[in-house]
Specification:
The complex is a heterodimer of chains A (323) and B (391).
Chain A (H helix, E strand, L loop, with lengths): L5 E5 L4 H10 L7 E5 L5 E5 L7 E5 L6 H17 L4 E6 L18 H12 L3 E5 L14 E4 L2 H11 L6 E5 L5 H11 L2 E11 L2 E8 L6 E9 L3 H12 L5 E8 L5 H7 L4 E5 L5 H6 L3 E4 L2 H13 L3 H11 L2
Parallel strand pairs in A: 1-4, 4-5, 5-6, 6-7, 8-9, 8-11, 11-12, 12-13, 13-14
Antiparallel strand pairs in A: 2-3, 9-10
Chain B lengths: L3 E5 L4 H11 L6 E5 L5 E5 L7 E5 L6 H17 L4 E6 L84 E2 L3 H11 L3 E5 L14 E4 L2 H11 L7 E4 L5 H11 L2 E7 L12 E4 L6 E9 L3 H12 L4 E9 L5 H7 L4 E5 L5 H6 L3 E4 L2 H13 L14
Parallel strand pairs in B: 1-4, 4-5, 5-7, 7-8, 9-10, 9-12, 12-13, 13-14, 14-15
Antiparallel strand pairs in B: 2-3, 10-11
Classes of the chains: A alpha/beta (323), B alpha/beta (391).
Chain lengths: 323, 391
């Protein structure tokens, strides 16, 4: 009986992560050339046969998002035309995840559009990490695996945050309460919440702390850090209420615009992000940034998907073997 | 006109304004911007419920950004209960399907520029590696040479994947053709109808399940020639390559003018292997008008003009439907022997006009406006091409 093999293609958004994932699987990245013509159209050339193979395309929704999204779609379509057996889109940071509801008249639900586009291009399976809202899985008609960075975060807290037993887990907004309480429960720590009023996109007005942080270390937990206005404002609010030190752990460190300046000038002790989005350049000018490597989570998911093993068991494995 | 809304995308706001004013209505209010993390943001500020929506977006400039913007606008209108959403795309993106050329022994001939290895090719500062177009030949990046075995100069130091497998594996490198994908994406976003002009590949209409109206730029070209060239009857229509012969002969027949063709001959078998461009037809002491649909890097028309001048042409003009002019095309035109290049404004031309004195523009807004009016009222659009002189 012929078996097929794993082929991993990387788009231009995050080649380093793709290399780490491939290395963990003991493979080389498969050959592909993705470039732009002089008139800005994207061109994809596949350098190996993918006929009847299990193809994984790793592309994160970061940097030039529209360009990277088009690259991903064209690569998926190219593999489908080349008779791949199954095409899985591995998208560590899902693009347009925040435009997931019609919160005002005529607002587009772009996350749904992206889901449709991926399916139309030919993706049979989607693997992503820490979706902004897990209901986005319902936008797809194909199976979606939403992995969690939580075990990696817990490991980091235990290993790298001194005096973590005397800390309080704080969620910088009401929406992230569930995420923060989950971490607080697993570490057996107290929990607090900051309630913020937001008038315009990327602009925060008023912050109210619910809970007690005086004399404690604080660990802020959130899923995305974009302009970091929220985090910086939260940190200063917490310091006013008596927090000793404020750490921030974030799944997706988008860090766009003036985020680096904001972090450097804030009273945050450290900002920890996963490597779903490349930030090597930013680390050089901001010593407060630290990285959690999630390539092992992705690599394990790819391996289990290919071998037909349970990902639920992976979660169990991660939860219980991380400590 | 009632129950119609026209939105302009950010690729060509000028064209949208002209079309709207020609129709006697205001453009629909929409706010287009980008979030801080580069995601596109679309806010539609008027009701589109049960209305006929037309979204005007050209596939030029930053193609992927403009295309995503178009898809998001279409999707937003659709879920806001618009009755019908039409995408008006004068210059259609990804319309050129790259063909892998073959060598004489049947093996594929595909070459990439030397520093294209899992990364972007920016408009390369190094002189000899010019950015490719969908129609150009490209070097093979999978074979190790001293030039491409290191990391290329560019944004980040990415070392190439181990290029141990070369041609010897018998695997044929091929470039993905994105035509069907683009058609499917437009349909899945919710477009009910597409209007475009002079599609590079007319078979493209078959990739869609929804109606596609491919308007002809030819009547506008014919009108321009009649109005702006004195003694046009004595001029010669020239096609700059064999592929465009059909297009050029259509214009020549309409005007009953002479026709000539420039043909790139295959490399000769005996060394030195030169590839010759040959002129088929007579152009001595005549005014030549080159006709083509797309001018991207403008290599084609400048090389053709050189051949015509060598063969004794008096004056050389070029009429191009889509003047994309990417990279240093403008400079090339300015330095060439062409006297004037006439393009339509399917792609915004303000910048090009400033940099180059040889460019003139003919307007397509009246034709599109009339087509939209007829579609909205349910009248025939092909009848439009019989009365193009009046536009």
């Amino acid at each position: 009986m012929t078996t097929n093999s794993i082929k991993i293609f990387a788009g231009n958004s995050h080649i380093e992560l793709a290399k780490f994932v491939a290395r963990r699987l003991g493979l080389e990245l498969s050959k592909v050339v993705v470039l732009k013509y002089s008139n800005q159209e994207t061109s994809v050339t596949i350098g190996e046969s993918v006929r009847d193979e299990d193809v994984f395309i790793i592309q994160s929704g970061c940097g030039e998002i529209n360009d990277n999204l088009m690259e991903l779609l064209i690569m998926i379509n190219a593999c489908k035309s080349a008779s791949a057996r199954r095409i899985t889109a591995v998208i560590p940071c899902f693009p347009y995840a925040r435009q997931d509801k019609k919160d005002k008249s005529r607002a587009p639900i772009t996350a749904k559009l992206v889901a449709n586009m991926l399916t139309v291009a030919g993706a049979n399976h989607v693997i992503t990490l820490d979706l902004h809202a897990s209901q986005i899985q319902g936008f797809f008609n194909v199976p979606v695996d939403n992995l969690y960075s939580e075990p990696s975060m817990l490991k980091y807290i235990k290993a790298s945050i001194p005096d973590w037993k005397n800390s309080v887990i704080v969620s910088p907004d009401a929406g992230g309460a569930k995420r923060a309480t989950s971490i607080a429960d697993r570490l057996n720590l107290d929990f607090a919440l900051i309630h913020k009023e937001r008038k315009k996109a990327n602009e925060v007005s008023n912050m109210v702390l619910v809970g007690d942080v005086s004399g404690k270390m604080v660990i802020l937990v959130d899923d995305m850090a974009d302009t970091c206005g929220t985090l910086a404002y939260a940190a200063s609010t917490l310091k006013e209420k008596g927090a000793l030190k404020v750490y921030a752990i974030v799944a997706h460190g988008i860090l766009s615009g003036k985020a680096i300046d904001v972090i450097n000038e804030s009273c945050l002790e450290r900002v920890v992000v996963t490597n779903t989005i490349p930030h090597e350049e930013k680390k050089k000018i901001c010593p407060k940034i630290d990285t959690i490597d999630i390539s092992s989570t992705l690599a394990e998911a790819i391996r289990r998907t290919h071998n037909g093993e349970s990902l639920q068991e992976q979660n169990y494995f991660l939860w219980h073997n991380i400590f | 006109m009632r129950n119609i809304v026209i939105f302009g995308g950010s690729s060509h706001p000028n064209l949208a304004e002209q079309i709207a004013s020609r129709l006697g209505i205001q453009l629909g209010k929409v706010k287009l911007s980008k979030f801080s993390n580069q995601e596109t943001n679309v806010e539609i500020h008027e009701s589109v419920r049960e209305k006929d929506v037309y979204i005007i977006q050209s596939g030029c400039g930053h193609v992927n950004d403009n295309f995503m913007e178009l898809l998001i606008m279409v999707s937003a209108c659709k879920i806001a209960s618009a009755k019908k959403v039409t995408a008006v795309i004068p210059c259609f993106p990804y319309a050129r399907q790259p063909d892998v050329p073959y060598k004489k022994n049947g093996a594929p001939l595909s070459r990439f520029p030397r520093n294209a290895f899992m990364g972007y090719v920016h408009n390369a500062p190094s002189g000899d590696s010019t950015p490719p177009t969908p129609a150009s030949d490209i070097k093979d990046p999978f074979i190790v040479t001293e030039q491409n075995s290191g990391s290329f100069d560019g944004s980040s130091p990415r070392s190439p994947a181990s290029p141990t497998l070369g041609r010897g594996t018998g695997y044929r490198h091929w470039i993905a053709r994105s035509g069907t994908l683009i058609a499917n994406l437009l349909t899945c976003a919710g477009a009910d109808h597409i209007i475009t002009m002079d599609l590079h590949d007319p078979q493209f209409q078959g990739f869609f399940d929804i109606p596609v109206d491919n308007l002809h730029g030819q009547p506008l070209v014919v009108k321009y020639i009649k109005q702006n060239f004195p003694n046009w009857e004595q001029a010669v229509i020239v096609s700059p390559d064999a592929g465009g012969a059909k297009r050029a002969t259509a214009v020549a027949d309409k005007l009953r003018m002479d026709f000539a063709l420039i043909h790139k001959e295959r490399r000769s078998q005996i060394p030195p292997h030169k590839s010759d461009t040959m002129l088929v037809g007579e152009v001595k002491d005549k005014v030549c008008i080159l006709i083509d649909d797309i001018a991207d890097t403008s290599f084609t028309i400048t090389k053709a003009a050189k051949v015509l001048r060598e063969n004794g042409a008096n004056k050389i003009y070029a009429i191009i439907t889509h003047g994309i002019m990417s990279g240093d095309a403008i400079q090339r035109i300015q330095e060439s022997v062409i006297d004037q290049v006439i393009v339509s404004d399917s792609v915004p031309q303000e910048e090009h006009l400033e940099k180059c004195s040889k460019i003139k523009v003919f307007h397509i807004a009246p034709m599109f406006a009339e087509a939209i009016r007829r579609m909205h009222n349910g009248e025939s659009v092909s009848a439009l091409f019989g009365i193009m002189e009046m536009l």
